[in-house]
């Protein structure tokens, strides 16, 4: 019971979170305000704390840490607006990655609407494909086709196949299109 009370204090008052000790006092105070504000509007605080601690580990300046945390809070808000208030923290983080990769908020909303499972993996695969050189619109279009029926493992395999084709010299958009066609053909009834 006492541990639960202690955890409640840490969650409710991030300035008392011992992890903040890794930040200088000014940065700690500014990050705590951002985390408190984010939590007040229903955004998760943990990704923001992790970003601040990542900055501290990399010896970033206080201003740089605060800017990164503030930017992430804004991106989490945009992802939540697109994915809805019921989106989980992992879904929001994957949404941020997809947005930063070039997906639009409309793509995130559409993904949420067509996927009958959590959108975390679909958005992560989208971001990974863009990082591999696939244009954001091509990656989004492919994932929106696959999202309604593909399992998470199928999405991961699709990403691996596209990345393999790119590594073998295929243009990224073409690799995505070819693998999407192959996936669609194999999903047809009567096909192995």
Features:
single chain; 192 residues; 2 domains; elongated; disordered N terminus
Mean pLDDT: 89
- Output the radius of gyration: 20 Å
The domain tally reads: 2
Strand portion: under 5%
Largest pleated sheet: none
Order of helices and strands: HHHHHHHHHH
Please characterize this protein's 3D structure.
- The protein is mostly helical.
- It has 2 domains: 14-86, no CATH class; 88-192, no CATH class.
- 72% of the residues lie in helices and 0% in strands.
- It is built from 10 helices and no strands.
- The chain has helices spanning 2-12, 25-40, 46-57, 62-83, 89-101, 105-114, 120-131, 136-146, 152-167, 172-187.
- Helix 5 (89-101) runs parallel beside helix 7 (120-131).
- It is elongated.
- The N and C termini lie far apart (55 Å).
